[in-house]
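Changelog-linked ticket: zinc ion example.
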Amino acid sequence: MEKEVSKFKSVFERITGKVSPEYITCKACSRRALKDVWERNLSICPTCGKYRPMTAHSRLRAIFDEGTMKEFNQDMITTDKIDFPGYEAKVKQLEKKTGINESAVTAEGRINGIHVVAVVLDTRFFMGSMSSVVGEKVTRAVEFADIHRLPLIIFSASGGARMQEGIYSLMQMAKTSAAVEEFSEHGGLYISYLTHPTTGGVTASFATLGDITLAEPGALIGFAGPRVIEQTIGQKLPKGFQRSEYLLKHGFIDKIVPREQMKQTLYDVLKLHVDSRFTRRMDAI
Ligand SMILES: [Zn+2]
């Protein structure tokens, strides 16, 4: 863990009174650190250890061996299917702000030499919600892994279905689940990696269909949020309900993996399950 936290105000801050765009302030401890320090630290606060959400590309850079990542289907365009007021403008605004054009990023690459397909949901884009394009990208990634007989890793983080796409969003639950089922029938290995927060339609489809389910510490994982459940059943929920640690205790997930151990843990799981003779033949990338 790095400890490069600045205690001094930059010239930018003294003049504008705002935090310099070079810095990110931790929401938990209010200390700030340079953006590239956060990036090298896997978006873990160098002062207090609190996690910030990782962007999809940071996550992929952190797990793939240098120079092996190849993104695919990044040109799929999200359209306003049901004329939802303001949807198109919001998509454009988020594209500009985040530099990505959907919440799902799909790529192939290698983890310590093992060729895999990975999908990451990015919460900066509509809280990682499932649009038609997200469902299609996830499905195509599963099918790509199936055709090339590669292991599949999906990092979920989602507020659920994309309400601005109505029924088209809900249809993605069945589509992605069917693709995962077919992949599974063909003997494919699917590691589902749950990060904060994984909720709604994503939890109710591909996120909970993994052969092995890993989760980040303290992640909220559930279908409806705790407040909605409490209001519905009229009871107080147990402490830590829907957090990774509670779900591990109740057998819903297999292991909680601190972010620093993410790549090594994935490699350990892959080593156990992937036929090394087969991965040696896959030298296409
Ligand atoms: Zn902090």
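Closing comment: Example verified and attached. DSSP finds eleven helices and nine strands in the chain. Residues 280-285 have pLDDT under 50 and may be disordered.
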